[in-house]
Amino acid sequence: MRILVILDAPEKLELAGDTSYALMLEAARRDHEMWTCQAGHLGLEHEDAIADAVPTEVRPADTARKAFLFGDRASIPLSFFDVVMMRRDPPVDVEYLQATWILERARGKTLLVNDPRSLREFNEHLVILKFPDLIPPTIVTRDAKRLDAFLAEQGGAIVLKPVDGYGGLGIFLVRSGDPNTSSIFETSTRGGDQWTMAQRYLPEASEGDKRIVLADGEVVGAVLRVPPQNEARGNLHVGASAVKTELTPDDQAIIRSVAPMLKEHGLIFVGLDVIGGRLTEINITSPTGIRHIEQLEKRNVAAPVIDCFERKAKELS
């Protein structure tokens, strides 16, 4: 297969935990032809989506400088590739939105991971509201007074998340009696100019935030991200520890409920975030976790993902 990976600057990837690198490495092991570009290298020639891409040799290494060998850049139609992976990290900003418009022009001509329509339509935080029975009590508001009332309704502990947030940035744990509460509400809503999501705080968060990685609705692995002491966020890049885990009956029920929607909307490669048996996020833009699962379980987790891409690309051809 020919595979194009749209990602951030490859030389800046942190290989030890980077899922894009894990997928590219597995594809290279299978002698698939790898190309890379950044979102800004996408374009249109009349009705055809193109990319100014570079052929990329991917090798096992401990630094990005050693991991990639790049060829000469060329302008190539996206239809040249069997698979196009959109792996640019959030935020989902104007550039990201415009990139999905360009990717839209390649629909039906290549396997798009993930579907650009769904990348536009589904906010990673708000999409969980499609499954109200699976999530903690949740509101979305700009109103600090409503947040204060919700805090009382939920027993005196809530979590605030920016609607367009990512990577744990801007997340606050708020408890009744905290003298900073009013300031946090003002900051989260930017004085009433920005929506924020508020959820009941789940005490199980101290035990870890479980990332479940799915390929076409099927589980390929899971990792528990345990926050350090005095930290409410279970994000690995802010110091959480990756811990081996297993799926519970609640996790399995969540997967069964969510998987049909993912398949319907072309969301092939997805990360579910689960705390205490409650769904808290559906990561569709650039899900991670593969490298950590591989290290913990000593198995090739990228393989079933690439198997999935190969199968779906063949179905499309």
Task: Please characterize this protein's 3D structure.
By secondary structure, the protein is an alpha+beta fold. The chain has helices at 19-29, 64-67, 94-104, 116-121, 144-153, 181-189, 249-264, 290-297, 302-316, and strands spanning 2-6, 33-37, 42-45, 48-58, 68-70, 74-77, 83-86, 111-113, 138-141, 157-162, 172-175, 196-200, 209-215, 218-226, 241-243, 269-275, 278-283. The chain has 9 helices and 17 strands. The strands form 3 sheets. Strands 1, 2, 3, 4, 5, 6, 7 and 8 form an 8-stranded mixed beta sheet that branches. Strands 15-14-13-16-17 form a 5-stranded antiparallel beta sheet. α1 crosses α9 (302-316). The longest helix has 16 residues, at 249-264. It is globular and about 60 Å long. The model has no long low-confidence stretch (mean pLDDT 95).
